[in-house]
Design a protein that fits this description.
This protein is of the alpha+beta class. Helices cover about 40% and strands about 25% of the residues. Helix 2 runs antiparallel to helix 4. It starts with a helix and ends in a 25-residue tail after the last helix.
Length: about 550
């Protein structure tokens, strides 16, 4: 039994242990079942969540797919737009390129047009210039032709006057003057002026020769526009009425010879010098007895040149080459530091109001210049190489100093630069004896070649006007207006010469009574130059009368 009981006990124990174990296993299994159920729930929940997540993911995928599809569509649309844009850009580039080509073509055409226009403009300008040159050349040629015709007419004047046709000769001279002046020629053309002057002396104008002196006339000077004085080797000082050309009065007579006249610029004092060797001084009008000025204690060897200033200074050149200078009539003279020479035989002197400065002909040649306000300073010598100076004239308005030479040449220095090379005027063939300057700067020179020459110092290239006095010329003087010059010479005459062609022309037209007849114009001027009145104040050819009154 005991084994059975033991077996039963053992079995019971085993069964109990197995039940316990089973119970435990059941509980474990139940716990596991519960756990599995829980896990299953969790799994179901997770699966459900996964399903939901998968659904959500699917939805998101679908959404993403739709978005991708949309993106693809958008990208496709964008690509299409890009392609369209690119195509449009390419088209735009093509159009722009085409437009640029067109613009370049247009610019090229414009530049070609501009170039063509420029070429056309240059050609036009060249053509215009050529036309203007041709017109100018034609004008110049016409002017030169008319100037040549004027010279030809002037050449005919002397011949026509010699045959006695005064009216035609005067018309030829006037028309020569008109052609010359109207075509750019000079009013001071020597040939034209000479033709005018010859014609003027065919008109009976009083006073062109003042006769009365009994010996050579040594000096002449204008007192004013209507009176002129002259001195002569006959020992007289004469005054002339220029309105009539007649001797007005003999102001003074002496046994000696008067060789020079000095008149101050204000025309208030008249000074005479001559072979007597002393000066006579009149206050103007010369109605009182003259004062007497002697160079030294006794009379000098003869005075042949003098000059007078408004301030009272007087300078005199003597035949022995000495020069005396008076600061006033009351004072004794000062002897200038000249190089004296007994062979000088001529000593021209001048004074001008800078210092005043005294200028004389130096015995060794050239000029001596001495500042009288600084008498201790030795004089300056210029132009010694030029030879002996025989006449002097200062031109204060243009600051020049002019000297005439033994050779016949004339030398012009600038006062502000006396050391510079001077201008040399040539034309006279013998010694210059006298010089004078008009208010307008025209220089007149007289010479032993029997002529007077008028020089335009503003244009020294221009030939001078030559006037034939007919004898040695000892003295010349301009009137205050410069339109008349008086010359005194070895022919015992004082002669009056007009100096301005325009005034001669006015005088001639005033004396003429007609213009050219048509046949005269055709003969002397020509049928290729239109007829014109020479004197506009006179009748034309239809009423011409060949005479002068």
């Amino acid at each position: 039994m005991r084994p059975l009981l033991g077996f039963l006990l053992f079995s019971t124990i085993i069964v109990g242990l197995g039940a316990v174990w089973l119970h435990r296993q059941w509980r474990v299994a139940d716990a596991e079942r519960i756990q599995l159920s829980s896990q299953l729930d969790v799994a179901r929940s997770q699966r459900q969540g996964a399903i939901e997540q998968r659904a959500a993911a699917e939805r998101e995928r679908l959404i993403a797919e739709r978005q991708r599809q949309d993106a693809l569509q958008q990208r496709s649309a964008a690509e299409r737009q890009r392609l369209n844009a690119e195509q449009q850009r390419q088209e735009a580039l093509s159009q722009r390129s085409a437009a640029e080509r067109e613009r370049l073509n247009a610019e090229t055409q414009r530049l070609e047009a501009v170039a063509q226009r420029s070429v056309a403009e240059r050609e036009r300008l060249n053509a215009e210039q050529q036309r203007q040159d041709a017109v100018q050349q034609r004008t110049v040629a016409e002017r030169l032709r008319l100037l040549s015709v004027g010279q030809s007419l002037a050449f005919e004047v002397s011949r026509v006057l010699q045959r006695g046709d005064r009216a035609l000769g005067s018309l030829l001279a006037l028309q020569a003057y008109r052609f010359t002046v109207d075509n750019g020629g000079s009013k001071r053309d020597p040939e034209i002026f000479e033709a005018m002057r010859q014609s003027l002396f065919t008109v009976e104008l009083a006073g062109h020769a003042l006769l009365g002196h009994e010996d050579e006339v040594r000096a002449v000077h204008f007192l004013n526009d209507t009176d002129l004085v002259s001195t002569s080797d006959d020992g007289t000082l004469r005054r002339w009425d220029l309105a009539t050309g007649q001797l007005d009065t003999i102001l003074f007579r002496d046994t000696g010879r008067f060789q020079t006249i000095g008149l101050d610029p204000a025309h208030s004092r008249l000074v005479l010098g001559g072979s007597q060797g002393y000066l006579r001084v009149w206050p103007l009008p010369a109605e009182t007895k003259p004062a007497r000025l002697t160079p030294g204690a006794t009379t000098g060897p003869g005075i042949n040149s003098l000059t007078v200033l408004n301030s009272g200074e007087i300078a005199a050149g003597l035949l022995d080459g000495s020069v005396y200078y008076w600061t006033s009539q009351e004072n004794q003279p000062v002897v200038a530091p000249t190089t004296a020479s007994t062979e000088a035989r001529s000593q021209p002197v001048v004074l001008w109001n800078e210092g005043p400065t005294l200028v004389w002909s130096d015995a060794t040649g050239g000029l001596g210049l001495w500042d009288t306000s600084n008498p201790d300073i030795l004089p300056t010598t210029i132009g010694r190489h030029l030879g002996q100076v025989t006449a002097i004239a200062p031109i204060t308005q243009t600051r020049k100093l002019v000297a005439g030479l033994q050779s016949g040449d004339i030398v012009v220095w600038e006062l502000d630069d006396l050391l510079a090379t001077p201008v040399i005027l040539t034309g006279h063939s013998s010694r210059i004896t006298t010089l004078d300057v008009a208010a307008d700067g025209i220089l007149a020179s007289g010479s032993l070649d029997n002529t007077i020459r008028l020089w335009n110092l503003a244009d020294t290239v221009q030939p001078p006007i030559t006037i034939d006095h007919g004898a040695w010329v000892w003295s010349i003087a301009f009137s205050s207006t410069g339109d008349l010059i008086a010359s005194a010479g070895a022919d015992r005459a004082v002669r009056l010469w007009p100096t301005r062609a325009e005034e001669i022309a006015e005088t001639l037209c005033g004396a003429l009574r007609r213009n050219f007849a048509h046949d005269e114009w055709m003969e002397f001027v020509g049928d290729d130059i239109p007829y014109e009145k020479t004197c506009h104040n006179l009748p034309g050819p239809e009423t011409s009368h060949a005479h002068l009154e």
